[in-house]
Structure formats: structure tokens, C-alpha cells
Amino acid sequence: QVQLVESGGGLVQAGGSLRLSCAASGSIFSIKNIGWYRQAPGNGRELVALIISGGTTNYAESVKGRFTISRDNAKNTVYLQMNSLKPEDTAVYYCGAVATRLYWGQGTQVTVSS
Question: How large is the average pLDDT for residues 69-92?
């Protein structure tokens, strides 16, 4: 079992920044990749950024150059630094980890006002 707890969402003006955190616990040794996904109202859940075992990172085209995913292995925490936020970044952001199966956190709301 893997447990994921997100934090750091909120309301920010366009052009602003937020940092999301995802604290992992449980069978973290079994995690193959971990990342951030988002779901806006009426849309499906989409990948935002991912860290694969070995440290390779992948980003959605829409966030490249603005968002940075990182991890602190000592704290078992993954971060998403979001800069130059746009109203279209408004969504519920979820931390997701692939281990023996896909695990999700509870999500954190990010709202970007214009």
C-alpha cells in the first residue's frame, strides 16, 4: 500500500506561483514512477509532470518551462513548483504513483484568477 497526501493548493492571480507537495508513505520502495496530474471541470485527468525511476522527468507541453517537478528522497516528498500560472491551469491537482497498482492522493484545488 502507498499513501499520498497533497498540500499547497490555493488561489493565486495569473502570473503568480504556487508549490504543491506530495508526501508519500507506506511501501514507497515499490514506487516505479510518481507525478502530478490535474483535472479541470468537465475534462479528464491529464498528466502534468512525472518523475520516473532513475530521475527522468516528463512534462506536458502546456507546462514546459513554467512547472518543475522535484523530489526530496529524505522526506519522501515530491514537489511541483508552478510559475507563471495561467487561468487555464485551474484544476484539482492529484499526486499519482505507480507501484503494484496506481495510487492517488485526495487532490488539492488550484485556482488561477485572471
Answer: 97
Identity of the amino acid at 62: S
C-alpha–C-alpha distance, residues 11 and 46, integer Å: 21
Cα distances from 68 to residues 2, 51, 60, in angstroms, run 23, 10, 11
Burial of 64 (0-12, 13-18, 19+ CB in 10 A): exposed
Query: What would the pLDDT profile of 4-48 be if each residue is shown by its tens digit?
Result: 999 999 999 999 999 999 999 999 889 999 999 999 999 999 999
Tracing cell 483535472 back to the chain, one arrives at 39
